[in-house]
Amino acid sequence: MAKRQGGIKAYFLPVSGISGDSNVGSKKLESKKAVVDEDDIVPVFDEPKAQSKLRVTGGRVSQRISPNPPKSFLSQNDSGNYEVRKRKRIVEDEDDDLEDHLEKQEQRSSKHESRTRQHPSTEPKQQNGPPPLPDRSAMREKLLGSSQCTEDGNVEETPEQVWTKKNPWTTNVRDAERRREDDPNYDPSTLYIPAAPFEKLTPFQKQFWNIKKDHFDVLLMFKKGKFYEMYDRDADIGASVLNLNYTGGGRVDMRCVGVPEQAFAKHLARLVEAGYKVGRVEQTETTNAAKKRRKSHEPAAKSQICQRALVRIVTKGTVIDTDNLASHQQRYVLAVEELVDEGTNRATVGVCYVDASENAVYVGEFEDDERRTWLETLMVLLRPKEIVINCMRVMSTAFQQITSYQRSQGVALMKTAGTLNTNVEFPSHVKEYLEEHKSAEAAMGVCRKYFQYLRIENEVFSMGNVKIQSVVRGSQLQDMDADKKHLVLDACTLSNLEIFANNHDGSERDTLFSFVDHAVTAGGKRLLRTWLAKPLYSAKAINQRLDAVDALGTLLDNTADHLEIRNLFASFGDVERGLARIHSTAAAEETVVMFDDTNKRKVIDFVKVVKGLKTGLEILDRIAHEWQRMPDCTSQILDSLLDGEESIPNDATEKLDYFFTGAFDFVEAERGEVKPPIGESGDPEYLAALGKLEDVDRELESELEMWREELGERSLRWYHRGKEGYQLEVPKKWFKPGRRIPGEFTPMSDSQTGKRFWTPRIQELYRRRVDASEGLSDQESGLFKKVLSRFDESYNCWSSIAEVVSKLDALMSSATLRKRSGHQLCRPEILENTTDRPVLILKNAYHPLVAEKMDGGTAASFVPNDTKLGGDDPMLVLLTGPNMGGKSTILRQTCIAVLMAQIGCYVPADACTITPVDRIFTRIGAQDRITRGQSTFMVEMEETAMLLNCATRNSLLVLDELGRGTSTFDGYAIAHAVVDEILTRACRTLFSTHYQFLTKEFAKHPEAAVYEMAAKVRNHTMIILSARYRAACLKRIHRQSRRSMRNARTSRSCTSSHPALHLSVVVSTVRGWQISHPPWRMPRTNVPGLSKTP
C-alpha cells in the first residue's frame, strides 16, 4: 500500500526477513516492513503456502520464489537467484510520482557517471543489462530510513546542504542586474542565476527557477498533482507561517513543504494576511496529456515534465475567496496619481480604487491642498489594503508622509512601472470622463497595470462595472455650497467620532457603525456602511428614507411570521460577491488542471448563488404581498423598490428558472457534478464523450465476464488501486494444486483475499478509459463554463435582485434599531434650509455607545442633556466645567445624533429637530503625528485652520479645549480669535473650554450662550450633574473650586464619581479646576494662519 508521509510516497512490502549482503543484513529491522523508494519497489508474487524472502543484491530488490514462478515477471541473475523485473509505470491523473521518477533517474545516472569517473570498474560491461544501479549505501539509506550519520560517526551532508553548496546563487542573492541586496537600487523582484549552474539543473528545477527568477519577491505555491508545494526559501516561509513540516529528505534536492489542494484557500489566506504576495503556479496539462505530447514527433514537445504557468498573484487587497473574508468588509486597492503645482504644492489628485471581490471599479479626480487633506480623508474612509503608485513619478512630501503612516497601520505600498491603456469596453460616459480628467485617467492606468501584473486585469475590468466618484465638496474643484447631496466627513471627524474604527485597537467594536448595524446580509451591511460614510443632506431625501423605515417597521410589527422574513434575508448569502466570482471564472482564459475537489467546490458555489437569487425573489414576493395589505402606509422608496423604477426586471423569474431546469441537472449540480438536464439531448460533444466512456466500460465488463468463464470463477471482480485501476482480482481459493495462471497475466498487487493481475488487453482498455474519462471531464468543464457564460450574460438582472434585497435589508436594519432594547430613540424632525438661521435642538440626548457600557447596558443611568443651537437660540455654546465632567461626551453625542438623523435612523433622544448639516468639523483630543513631523500643537492648528477655511453657515463645529497644546496666554489668544471668527459666520458651534475669561468675555454676546457642567462635592466625592445654562457663572465656579480646595487640604485627595460614566478617579489635587488669570483683560488677537484664506 502507499502512504504519503510529509509529502513523500513510501511503499511498504511485507517481508519475513532480509538477507543477502552483509552490510544490509547486519541491520535488524524493528518492524516487519521495509521502507523503500517507490522507484525501486516492485510487486511481489508469492506462491500459495510458500514463505518468501526478500534479499538485496547489487542494489536491487530480489526474492527467492517457490516453484513455478511467472517467467514474464522474474529473471535469473548470475548467482542463480531469481530477480524481480521492474514493470513499466502506468501514468494517470497525478504526476508527482512520474516527475520524481524522472528526477531521481537523472540524479542516479549523474551519480553513477561521477563514480565511474572516480573509480573505474574492472568488470566487463553488460551491453543489454539493466540501467546503472545505485550503490549499496544509497539502498541501505532507503531501506533503513534517511540518516545523516555514518557508521564511523561522521555527519553526512543533507541533500539540502549539497544543493546550497552547488548553487550559491540561492543564498548570495543578486537581482537581474547583478546588484546585491544592500545596493540602494536593488530590485527584490528579480534574481540573477548564472548560466552554467542553471544548465546543470534538472528539468523540474529549471521550470521552477525560470518562474521564480522573475518573481523573486513572490511566494510561489507550485502545483504537483493534488498538492501545492513550496521550495527553497519559500519553504522556509511556509514552515514558519503555516507551521508545516519539511518533506523528509527534501524534494528535488530543495527544501520543501506542501499543502493539499483542498486546503489551498485556507493556507493562502494565512500567508497573505502575514504580508506576503503569493503566486499560484498551476499545471496546464494533465499527466496523460503530457505523455501523449512526449510521444509526438515535435522536438519541442519532448519535455519530461508537465507544463506549468504562473496564473495568479494574490495580495492583501485581492483575496476574493469569501470564505476567508469578513462578509461585509471591502478590501480596496487604491491607485493614486498626482499632478503637482510646484508653486503652491497643491495637486490635482486622480484616484482609482477597486474591490476585487465585487469587480467594482471607482475612479475620480479632485484638487487637494498642500496637506492632501482630501486624499487622507479618502484613505480613512476606504481603509485600503494596498496603495499603488507609479514608480516612474516622484510623489510629493505630503503624500509620502500619508503613505508612511498608512504603512505603519499595515497597509501595503505597491509600485508599478508606467500605466496600461489597452482598449476596454467601458461605458461611454466613463470614456468621456477619462478623456477630460487626465489625473483620473492616469490613476486608472496605474491600477490596470498593477492588476495585469496580478493576472486578473481582464477578470476585474471586463465587467465594465466602473463608477465615477463625484468631486469632493470643499476641495478646490468644488466649494462647499455646490451640489450638496451628502454630509461631508473628513478624516479627522471619522477618527474623533469613532464611526468605523475605534481608537483603541482599530476594530469595528464600540463604533457608531456597530451600534446602527442590524443588517443580516453582507450586501446590506456594506450598503449601510456607505450610507454612514455619506449621510444625506437633502431634507426631502432624509424624510423619504425615514418614511421607508417606519413603513417597514410597521410591516414587521403587523406580520405574524416576521421572523421568517428575517431568516430569509439571513439565507440570502453574499450574492454580490458570488456574481463577481462567477464572472471572473467565466472570463478567465487560463487552462489549468483542477482536480475533482476543486471543480466540485466551484459548482457548489455557483449553485449557492442561484439558490440565493431564488431566495431573493421569494423575499421580494413576501414583502410586496405584505405591502399591498397596508394601504394606509406610504413610502416612495418602497413603491420604487417593489414596483417602480428600481424594481427587478419582469423576466427575472423566467431567466432564473432556466438554470434550475434547462441548463443542467440541478440535482447533480448540488453534489458538485455538471451534467446535461434529464430528458433532453444535451450538448452533442458532451454526449459523444460520454458515449466513448460507456463503450470502454462495456468492453471492460465483457473482458471481466470472459475471464470468469475462462477461469471458472464467478467471484472475479475489478479492483481499483489509485493510478492502477481495473486490476483483475482472483480470490485465493482459486489457487489450488495443479492450477496455473495464464501466461499473459502480469501480477500487480495482492492481499489476504486474493491476487490481482493485468493482461495486455486489460491494460489497453484501462488506458483507453483514462483517455475517455479525461475527455468527458474536459466536456464537463466546457459545459460548466458555457453555463457560467450564459448566466453572466444576465448579470444586470441578477445584480438588480441583489441591490434591491440589500436596500431592503439596510432599511430593515434601521427599523429594527427603532425598538432596540434599553434605548430611548425618537424620529428626528428634519426641516428644510429655508432661512438664514439653521437649527439643532436635542432634548434629553445621550451617547448610545457610552450608555451601552454602563451597568445594565441601557440609557437609564445616563444623565441626559439638552442641546439648543440656532433658530431662536444662540448659534454658539461655550461649555465649561470640571475635568471628567462630560463636556467631550456632550460634544460627541451631538455629532452622533446628527449623523444618525441624516442617514435615516432614529436618534438617541426624546426629541430632535434639525436642519441638515453640510459638514461636521471636530477639533477633539490632543495627539501628535510623529510620522508626519507634526507636534500636538501643530495638529491642533491644522485642524482649526481647516475648520475656519471650509465652514459654512450650515456646518456643525465642535471644538474641545482649543489652545491646550501651548501656553495659557497663547492658548487663550487663539481660542478668543477663533470664537470671534466663528460668531461672525454664524455657524452652529459647541466650544468647550477651561478659559474662564473666555466665558466672561462672550457671555453677553447675543449669539453665544455659556453652559457649565454642574457638579456637587459631597464627602470628598465630586458628583457631576447635567449641563445647565448660566449668564455669568465665574463666581459660582470659583466658589465651588475654593470649597473643593479646602476639602482637598484635609485629605490631600478626593474621589470623583461620575454617575453618567460610572467611573471613580482618584485626584491628587483640585488645583487644575481653578485657572489663574491676570487682573487685566487679554486683548483680542488675530493668530496668523487661522484666518480664512482669500
Automatic annotation (TrEMBL):
Going by the UniProt record, its keywords in alphabetical order are:
ATP-binding, DNA damage, DNA repair, DNA-binding, Nucleotide-binding
Q: Which residues cross the membrane?
A: none
User: What are its GO cellular component terms?
Assistant: MutSalpha complex
Stretches of Basic and acidic residues bias are at: 27-36, 101-122, 174-183
> Which InterPro entries does this one have?
DNA_mismatch_repair_MutS-lik_N, DNA_mismatch_repair_MutS/MSH, DNA_mismatch_repair_MutS_C, DNA_mismatch_repair_MutS_clamp, DNA_mismatch_repair_MutS_core, DNA_mismatch_repair_MutS_N, DNA_mismatch_repair_MutS_sf, DNA_mmatch_repair_MutS_con_dom
Q: DNA repair as a keyword?
A: yes
UniProt keyword annotation of Transmembrane helix present: no
Q: Which domain of life is it from?
A: Eukaryota
Name of the protein this chain belongs to: DNA mismatch repair protein
Organism, scientific name: Rhodosorus marinus
